[in-house]
Amino acid sequence: MDTTHRDVIIACDFSSAAETLAFLDKFTGRKPFVKIGMELYYAEGPSIVREIKRRGHRIFLDLKLHDIPNTVRKAMKVLSCLDVDMTNVHAAGGVQMMKAALEGLTRPDGSRPMLIAVTQLTSTSPQVLHEELLIPETMEDTIATYARNAAAAGLDGVVCSPLEAAAVKAAVGAGAFFTVTPGIRFADAAADDQVRIATPANAASLGSDFIVVGRPVTQADDPVAAYERCVNEFCGQ
Ligand code: C5P
Question: For the residues of 89-148, what is the DSSP string, one character each?
């Protein structure tokens, strides 16, 4: 696994295949790494994954599995048949669930997509962590522990805010362990519902390996230009 290879992943949070493919058609020069999330997957099913793969994109299938280990193992076995490059679970499901996910995802020939774990959603504030989830530890300690659990289960990395990427690397120690970071906003744009945010350039300097960018690209007047701006800010560092 090449952890030196930074990339920008576009969150294709659309509700139909038609809208998604029309969006991807704008990218004539290069094939961005795309994230297919719950909205699109639940609307269109595996066929949209196959079509985007057929068009030559790498795919992060972001379904954030979180259930008992046996259910997650069997669901991951089904997903292992889709030719995606990355998929994920919630670290809150625990180490046994993450191990089961890895087992289910591993194909008979030993190959598998990258598997990462969501630590805390980037929309979660410290206040929500303490007052609603009743987790008394700091956000940083919670995320560091969840990242260590993911590493102990054999996962390839975590989803976290760019603001926590360095703490994750420090918690997990040396070795290939990716940080995949949503919560990306340009310096001159609105935060929307995201709380723990950074610009693409900040994310690079904080140690993110992949940034996930949705609305700043998908809702831009010129999505290709917005994507290129992300790539230049993030990979040009
Ligand atoms: O539009 P925006 O850039 O906020 O999109 C971020 C994407 O990353 C969304 O698809 C969201 O579901 C996802 N995500 C997130 N925070 C996490 C995990 C995934 O925002 N911790």
Answer: EEGGG-HHHHHHHHHHHS-TTS---EEEEE-S-TT--HHHHHHTS---S-HHHHHHHHHH
